[in-house]
Amino acid sequence: MNLGRTLLFSPGDHSRRVERVLASSAATVVLDLEDGVADGEAKARGRATIAHALSTTDRAKVFVRVNATGTADHAADLDALGPVLGRTTGIILPKVESREEITVLAARLGEFERVAGSAPGSLKVVPVIETCAGLLVAPEIAASVRVAGLIFGALDLAAELAVSPISGLDHTRAQVAVAARAAGLRGPIDGPHPDLDDDDGLAETSLASRALGFSGRVVLHPRQIDIVERAYTPTTDEILRARQIVQASESNAGSLRLPDGTFVDRPVVARAQALLAEVGE
């Protein structure tokens, strides 16, 4: 499944913010019941607000981030939203640390589908890899039933490792990218840039993330959408290069060398074809 290049989050207990994100140009919208919403009364208000919003919107690619497995709020989230989950694409599940968590959630989603008369397997799950324990089993999580993609929770993982979320996590980002691709998924979605006012930093770190195999990023404000979209979109030079590689391969069945000396064989051609497919060619 293609989640797109931008996942715009909104706290679920703010009705106006929920309305704004649902009307935004983000590829995917996530209505949040976890970290973006305070405990207690705010969680209950968030469930009611999200349930109402889902019952009235026709927007495609809408997810709900519920609370982590094993918490009382997780069970309450599913109980409250079950009747309207058929109007979503699925669930963002935070702090995933085992394949079993996905299996249990998948069974519950199957119950909701049966009651609603939805197609089996139509509700998807996007786990967030944001703890050291989750990182160690990321390949198993990525290969679980219903998983449509992975999100890299940079801020939580950086806090656990006591490193910078900007410069200290490249090795773990690479691990998550490998786990996603090994499971046949698209490149994972990176976490948000921590400084909302740092547009240059947002662009720079998004380009670096794309270079590590990520396909998009979480955004926390609509004004970040265009910056992130540009960063993860193939450039004109990349597209022209891919066309050159594909055209050269069509005239030569084996490996070849381009005029600039670059050696081209099947993996290089496959990458060029994938890039062109990404831009609709």
UniProtKB/TrEMBL annotation:
UniProt KW Magnesium keyword: yes
Q: Where is the signal peptide, in residue numbers?
A: none
Give GO BP annotations, semicolon-separated: oxaloacetate metabolic process
Q: Which Pfam families match?
A: HpcH_HpaI (PF03328)
Chain residues that bind Mg(2+): E130, D156
Recorded hits in SUPFAM superfamilies, A to Z, give: Phosphoenolpyruvate/pyruvate domain (SSF51621)
Q: What residues bind substrate, as annotated? A: R65, E130
Gene3D superfamilies the record matches: Phosphoenolpyruvate-binding domains (3.20.20.60)
InterPro entries per UniProt:
Aldolase/citrate-lyase_domain, Citrate_lyase_beta/mcl1/mcl2, Pyrv/PenolPyrv_kinase-like_dom, Pyrv_kinase-like_dom_sf
Q: Name one GO molecular function term.
A: lyase activity
Q: Which UniProt keywords apply?
A: Lyase, Magnesium, Metal-binding
What region holds the HpcH/HpaI aldolase/citrate lyase domain?
5-222
Name of this protein? CoA ester lyase
